[in-house]
């Protein structure tokens, strides 16, 4: 597979000097506003949202290869990131369509790939909720949605990062053991789908294919077993085996300890993942600090606990492999002018 010049430059911009993506995520919108309001006990202003994101960007991008932000509240933060950190911008609306089944996604109505690129994006990220077990007509609509974004990114010669998050179309408990047993198939079949060239995805942002809380013997084990350690490692390998494009792991809102343990298990499994895009596992415990004690207290918390969290993740990226191997790009070309 060959990369066009714009896509190559975009991937270089969000990678570290090893060709690994060690990115921070701060594109949360609805969930962040809700969490801040709960802790604050009142309304959350635009200034609150922008300030939270600015502080995260200023503190954490010195320890990251890039940051993922949104164009709604994150553009001021994009201008305050470390000079060596690349920028991914989110293109999708927060959440999904609640008026019909299937968690149908939509794009920000006042944005386009061209506009996001003009705003400084090195790469474009889109999130969809996806289950291979959903109805054919639901998934056909999502497939067409991703194809259109892929074509728009090709036309603007910018990398396309697709994030897909699994769910239960039947409405079951997605934190329970039964869903944990289905999760490996959901992740693996989703990766097999979107790795296809027709979607124009350059990097897949994927969930860990197991739930560490249900891995017998794991530190995060909660008592109910869905898989033992050897089975979990094989499930990592099974998911990775279907990928023909680079993939990076997302933290999915779990704790820093749980996410780093899952990265350790991926490494032990011998999986060739290409990095992470990690958000809440780094900064979510600082939400009460910001809401109750203010911006300066939050900054101090991030400079200690937040930096510790992101460095915990970075330490587990020694096992990650460079994306340029997959695209047949020499390390010299991939890292030139980085």
Q: Secondary-structure blueprint of this entry?
A:
Layout lengths: L4 H9 L7 E5 L4 H11 L5 H15 L5 E4 L5 H4 L7 E5 L22 H6 L4 E7 L6 H20 L4 E6 L11 H18 L8 E4 L22 H13 L5 E4 L5 H14 L5 E4 L1 H4 L3 H7 L1 H21 L15 H5 L3
Parallel strand pairs: 1-2, 1-8, 2-3, 3-4, 4-5, 5-6, 6-7, 7-8
Helix pairs in contact: 2-11, 3-12, 7-8, 8-9, 9-12, 11-12
Mind explaining what this structure looks like?
It is built from 13 helices and 8 strands. The protein has about 350 residues and is an alpha/beta fold. It has one domain: Aldolase class I (TIM Barrel). α6 links the parallel β4 (about 125-130) and β5 (about 160-165). The longest helix is centred in the last third of the chain and has 21 residues, at about 295-315. It is globular, with a radius of gyration of 19 Å.
């Amino acid at each position: 597979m060959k990369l066009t010049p714009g896509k190559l430059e975009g991937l270089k911009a969000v990678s570290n000097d090893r060709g690994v993506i060690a990115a921070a995520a701060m594109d949360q919108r609805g969930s962040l506003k809700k969490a801040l309001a709960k802790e604050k006990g009142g309304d959350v202003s635009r200034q609150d949202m922008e300030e939270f994101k600015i502080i995260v960007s200023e503190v954490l991008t010195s320890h990251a290869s890039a940051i993922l932000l949104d164009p709604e509240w994150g553009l001021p933060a994009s201008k305050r990131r470390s000079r060596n950190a690349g920028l991914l911008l989110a293109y999708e609306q927060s959440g999904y369509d609640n008026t019909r089944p299937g968690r149908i996604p939509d794009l920000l109505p006042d944005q386009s790939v061209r506009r996001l690129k003009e705003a400084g994006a090195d790469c474009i990220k889109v999130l969809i909720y996806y289950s291979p077990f959903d109805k054919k007509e639901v998934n056909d609509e999502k497939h067409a949605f991703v194809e259109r974004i892929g074509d728009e990114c090709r036309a603007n010669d910018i990398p396309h990062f697709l994030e897909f998050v699994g769910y239960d179309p039947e409405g079951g408990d997605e934190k329970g053991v039964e869903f944990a047993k289905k999760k490996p198939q959901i992740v693996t079949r989703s990766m097999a789908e979107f790795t296809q060239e027709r979607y124009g995805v350059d990097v897949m942002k994927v969930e860990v294919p197991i739930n560490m809380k249900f891995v017998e013997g794991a530190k995060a084990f909660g008592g109910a077993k869905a898989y033992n350690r050897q089975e979990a490692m094989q499930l990592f390998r099974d998911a990775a085996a279907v990928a023909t494009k680079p993939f990076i792991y997302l933290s999915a809102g779990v704790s820093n300890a749980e996410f780093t343990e899952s990265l350790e298990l991926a490494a032990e499994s011998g999986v060739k993942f290409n990095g992470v895009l990690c958000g809440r596992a780094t900064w979510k415990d600082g939400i009460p600090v910001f809401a109750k004690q203010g911006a300066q207290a939050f900054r101090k918390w991030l400079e200690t606990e937040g930096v510790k969290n992101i460095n915990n993740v970075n330490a587990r990226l020694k096992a990650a492999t460079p994306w340029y191997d997959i695209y047949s790009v020499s390390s010299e070309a991939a890292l030139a002018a980085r």
